[in-house]
Structures are given as C-alpha cells and as structure tokens.
Design goal:
Layout (H helix, E strand, L loop, with lengths): L1 H15 L12 E2 L28 E3 L5 E3 L8 E8 L9 E9 L5 E9 L6 E7 L3 E10 L2 E10 L3 E10 L2 E10 L3 E5 L6 E7 L15 E7 L4 E3 L11 H19 L1
Parallel strand pairs: 1-11
Antiparallel strand pairs: 2-3, 4-5, 5-6, 6-7, 8-9, 9-10, 10-11, 12-13, 13-14, 14-15
Helix pairs in contact: 1-2
C-alpha cells in the first residue's frame, strides 16, 4: 500500500510541475518573475503533443468583427472562450483571444490561448500561448500606461496558474508566470492601482493547515514600471519557488505516511 501511495505522490508532483511552453510559433520573450517550471524544458513534464487532425479547419464567425480560423491541429478540440479585446498594444488594436483545450482521447489535456489581430473579414493569428492543463479565462489589465493580458489557468483539482503577457508590435512578452495550489490573486496596488500578484504559500507551521480553509501565507509581486518584482514588505513568507513548494509538500506527506506505519 505504501508503495502505491508513494507512486501516487510522485505522479502528483509531476502533475503539479507539468509545463507546456512548447509551441509551433516562436517562443515569447520573458521578463520578470517566472518560475523555472513554466519555461525550463528539463524541469517539467510536457503533455503529449496534440495529434494532427484530418478534419477541416474550424472557422469561427465573429459577426461584424469578421472571422478567424484555428490552426488545423486544433480543429477538433474544445473551444472554451472567444473574447474580443479592443486593444492589446500597437499591432493588436482590435484583438480576439480564443481559449481552448487540446488533447488526445483518454489522455492529458493542454490549454492554449490564441491571440488574433488584424481587421476585415479574416483575422490573423498573432500568438499561440501554451498554458498548462486547463484554461479558465483572461482579462485585460493596465500597468502604468500599458495594457497587458492576464490568463488564468488550472492544473489538477485546485492548482491555479497565472500568466501576464505584454504585446509590443504584436509580439508577446511574458512578464510573469506563477502558480500555487494555495491560490493566486490579483489585487490593486492602493497607491498606483496597478495590479499586484499575490501567490498563496502553504503555512506548514500551522498544525491545522489545509488548502480548503487554512490561513495561507503570501508572496507578493508588484509592478515597478518595467517588471514585476518580489515585495518583501507586503509578503508574509520568504520567496519560495514552485518546485521547492512542491517538493516540501511531497516530503511532508511521505513523512506523515511513515508516522502512520
């Protein structure tokens, strides 16, 4: 039984650290606090590549806003959201974001956010942003004088992922990628109204800690004008990377199993 439980924990750790930043498009440039597990090929597990489809490409009618066509390999996948965004920066004055799940039958899913630009009847795919397991939604935020796209995702039962992208000349730049099983919040900075990113941290010093109702700690990241940086004054825990939090979780659960033997 203990071997089965240990194997399950290894799989859980792999699921928590699963990363999908491989893309057929050019990889976005990166700036700011990005957990290695969101960008390091060696650190995380990739989902299976989406198989090619033999069906016709899926075209989505946007009414007066024109239409867009999904890449052929996404033609038979689940489209969750089609959201028109009035402005995402120069080159994307009138954008459309498509959130979808791709995968294989009885296999893992991988989420994507596709960003379309252009005008007229046929929209042009500008960016293909690979996420993790599930797409939740997106929202437009203002950082100083710039507009950015925040994408919310999930992995497993309750793991919250957050990506923040800036677009310059229609090209994506990843400003932040964070995730936590204890949640991720966006809160306005009381002095600037720029959004702050609050990453939940497990409070293992609390003997009654649990993910459902425990009082979590926080790593807080604020916008400094060009990048997100860790704010030790607002944070209630030292900055802890995702892989370190995952490893500690597995070690504590294994220790509890040993004590029950």
């Amino acid at each position: 039984m203990r071997r089965v439980q240990a194997a399950s924990l290894v799989l859980l750790a792999a699921a928590l650290s699963a990363v999908a930043l491989a893309s057929a498009e050019e990889s976005p440039s990166t700036t700011g606090p990005i957990d290695p597990l969101y960008r390091d090929v060696e650190a995380g597990m990739y989902f299976e590549k989406v198989p090619p489809t033999t069906g016709p490409a899926l075209t989505i009618d946007l009414g007066k806003a024109g239409r867009l066509t999904l890449p052929p390999r996404f033609a038979e996948q689940d489209v969750l959201e089609v959201k028109r965004v009035r402005y995402l920066g120069p080159g994307l004055e009138d954008a459309v974001v498509v959130g979808l799940h791709a995968g294989v039958p009885d296999g893992p899913t991988q989420a994507f956010a596709l960003v379309y630009g252009g005008s007229g009847q046929q929209r042009v795919l500008k960016a293909e942003l690979p996420l993790r397991q599930y797409y939740i939604g997106c929202e437009v935020l203002t950082l100083g004088r710039e507009v950015v796209l925040a994408i919310h995702g999930a992995s497993g039962a309750h793991f919250h992922d957050l990506w923040v992208y800036r677009f310059r000349d229609g090209k994506p730049e990843l400003l932040l990628a964070k995730g936590s099983a204890a949640g991720v919040d966006l809160r306005p900075d009381p002095t600037t109204d720029d959004p702050q990113v609050w990453v939940g941290i497990e409070n293992w010093d609390d003997p009654d800690w649990n993910y459902a109702s425990g009082k979590r700690l926080w790593n807080v990241y604020g916008w400094t004008g060009e990048a997100f940086t860790f704010n030790p004054g607002l944070s209630t825990a030292q900055e802890v990377a995702l892989d370190a939090r995952t490893n500690e979780y597995v070690q504590r659960v294994m220790s509890n199993l040993d004590e029950k033997q």
